[in-house]
Amino acid sequence: MLQNYLLSAYRNLIRNRGYALLNIIGLSIGMTLFLLIVQYVTFERSYENFIPDRANIYRVSLVTGHSASAENYAGLGPALVNEIPEVTSYARLMNMSYINNVVVTYDQARNGPISLKQHRFLYADPAFLPMMEFKMVSGNASQALAGPNTAVISENYARLYFGEEDPIGKTLHMHDDDSDDQLAKVTGVFKDLPANTHLKFDILFSYQTMFGTRVDQNWARTRPEFYTYIRLRSGTDPKSIESKLPALYAAYGGKGQTGHLQPLSGIHLRSDLAEELEANGSETIVTILSIVGIFIMGIAWINFVNLSTAGAIGRAKEVGVRKVIGADRTHLISRFLTEAALINGISLLIACALIYLSLPGFNYISGLALDSNYLLQGWFLGLLGVLWITGSLLSGFYPAWVLSSFRPAAVLKGKLKNTSGGILLRKGLVVTQFMASIALIAGTIIVYRQVHFMLNQNIGMNIDQVMVMDRPSIAPNHDKNIAAFRAGIDLFRNELKQDPDIEAVSNSTTIPGKQREYKTMIKVIGNASNDSITVRVNSMDFDFLKVFQMQLLAGRTFSRDFPKDPDTSAIITLSAARLLGFKRPEDAIGKSIQAWGNYHLIIVGVVNDYHQLSLKKPLEPTLFSCDWYEGDYFSVRLHTTHIDQTLRHVEASWVKAFPGNPFEYFFLDDYFNRQYSNERQFGQLFTTLSIFAILISCLGLFGLSAYTASQRIKEIGIRKVLGASVLNITTMLSKDFLKLVVLAIVLVTPLIWMLMNRWLQDYAYRISINGWIFVLAGLAALCIAVVTVSFQAIKAAVANPVESLRSD
């Protein structure tokens, strides 16, 4: 029986190869895109899934007023375990490689010391490895970080430092640009971490190596720079723990502060706090892409249903004959479902091949690193089966029901016509298709405009053609030998100035795009209101404004002519001046302010506002102190006329001034725009998916318009005989489809406005969703529909009427 069904299905595909090909192309493209989106969404939602007890592990964020940070006080973990019985353990991390410039060296390497700059170097409590249950290649996870001067490293860095040697027992030497100089013995090697974790690190030094227990007691004397993870007793309500935190913070000197418990597996998609370990994803983006994937698969199945039901009359006699010779409805439905299953099966096989071929391009667009092994995972193979069965039933059942319902007598007498119900359903499906297509066109325009707006907005500084280097880690200890440390910096500056393509050099505490939270409270001394404001803090040397091309609105910049500037002077931004109560920038000049507790400074200049972070965040007021030597970054404004020669000169100057330090640099515009990587990837994905979704819709509309033209071929012939022009006939055949497109525009506009407006709420600075966007999306859909339908309409209109009327 099944063999007979398959043979019949195969013969029908060959007989109607044109429509079959349209169905297979549409379904295979739809399935390919749907499965790629599923891979993306599954990956984004899989963060921390490899950690067995993730359901009971939380990160405690710090909430101060309206701001929140992923980092917390060092003493929080011990206090939680001591005072809240439901908290069974804690583990702290400190991301030293983000705070300071870290270089780790293996001094005893056979061919000389191996020094590598570390971007993922952290201090960790002994409980961290066993809490997360990371897999160890060697060493004991529970004991590896139990004592001072111990370290664990990844497999990859074990190879980079030690080659084929056994790392256990070897000594690593850490330097940073804050005078830290530490030795640690390797006590463990962990397997390289998977990509789906926000906990990314290459080297862990034990917490006791840096801190001992001195920072655990008085929170008020320590900066909150520790990621604190806790494990709750199974079944504990995290809200009950959160309710106890305000009192706990107050008891340890954190009055007015509290904490929030973030589920470990939710951090990647639902956390966007200051001081995150890495830039996280967006649950809104994942949700939107999930909806797009369902839209695309739905469009492909709608095509199948439309073409199958529209072509039902062409198979009416086949159904009539089969019923006359004894086939019942169940038998016919099974036969036609087999055809649907065959088409879906062929499409699915083609989709798998397309996924394999398109993975490199998809990885480039999405920022993922999927390989063909993902296609062999159990859940994915199961999904293929579910998709095949679901697709066969959804796309095949209604056409099978329609075909099996024909009455043999009417069919064999040639009196069968399309029912009004069937025509209405097809129109509804076409409207649904174009609603999805118009939504994707409008969404693409909105996403593109928002990304373009953020990338091209004036941030208040010119960050183009600015090269940045971290200050050296391996340098004379400037706490003990300030003269030698400063001599190295002076030498570096002077060497750089020998190149005429280098315009200026500046040294500052932070740079645009750096998310480190340097803040303080300031107030005007003698102000009757005595109100304080919170400002970001940066340092500025004498050439800072020249490098970043900011505007001096009032007063003066820091200068060598005022040797007391580093101790007594400050420059503030325009928003800071206004918040302090000054109506004009000039009014702030010469006023004294109090900062960092009781430190007094005189405002000597006011500069324009600038965005330290991306346009997702509100603009913040800033205070600049004067510092010629202590900044964490060197920023170099250069001309790009002889860029290779200039870069070689910068490297030579670095090696001369700071021997033994690895030379690394980046360009500031690239660094700043990395904050928009999620939006860029989303925009590229959205645009690509939209193009293919519209293509699938066009395939269906193309086939449906061809069928409509064939059904009205005699009418067209009569109209031509009576004098109708090609334009008249083309208009007659096209107008019904165009009405459906217009209806789709009207129905989908409010829906897409609500969805995309929700996405835009994540941005402090955003575009407005104007009506012209929907007009443009609608016109684009109309043009696509006109081109698609007109091809078949013109083809029918120019046909010889003699051929269509010969049988009559």
**Rough outline:** globular
Structure classification: alpha+beta
Mean pLDDT: 84
Number of helices: 28
- The beta-strand count equals 24
- Range of strand content: 15-25%
Regions with little confidence, pLDDT below 50 for 5+ residues: 409-416
Q: Largest sheet at a glance?
A: 13 strands, mixed
Alpha carbon gyration radius: 34 Å
Could you tell me how far the N terminus lies from the C terminus, measured between alpha carbons in angstroms? 41 Å
How helix-rich are the residues, as a percent range? 40-55%
Protein architecture, described:
This protein has 28 helices and 24 strands. Helices cover 49% and strands 17% of the residues. Strands 1, 2, 3, 4, 5, 6, 7, 8, 9, 10, 11, 12 and 13 form a 13-stranded mixed sheet that branches. It is an alpha+beta fold.
Sequence-ordered SSE layout with sheet pairings:
Layout: H1 2-15, H2 17-44, E1 57-64, E2 67-69, H3 76-83, E3 87-94, H4 96-99, E4 102-106, E5 114-118, E6 121-124, H5 128-132, E7 136-138, E8 150-154, H6 155-162, E9 171-176, E10 181-190, E11 203-206, H7 207-210, E12 227-232, H8 238-242, H9 245-251, E13 257-263, H10 267-270, H11 283-310, H12 316-324, H13 329-366, H14 378-404, H15 408-412, H16 420-456, E14 466-470, H17 482-496, E15 502-508, E16 519-524, E17 533-540, H18 544-548, E18 552-555, H19 565-568, E19 569-573, H20 574-579, H21 585-588, E20 592-595, E21 599-607, E22 622-626, E23 633-638, H22 643-657, E24 666-667, H23 668-673, H24 677-711, H25 713-721, H26 726-760, H27 771-797, H28 801-805
Parallel strand pairs: 6-11, 8-10, 17-22, 19-21
Antiparallel strand pairs: 1-2, 1-12, 1-13, 3-6, 3-12, 4-5, 4-9, 7-10, 8-11, 9-10, 14-23, 14-24, 15-23, 16-17, 16-20, 18-21, 19-22, 20-21
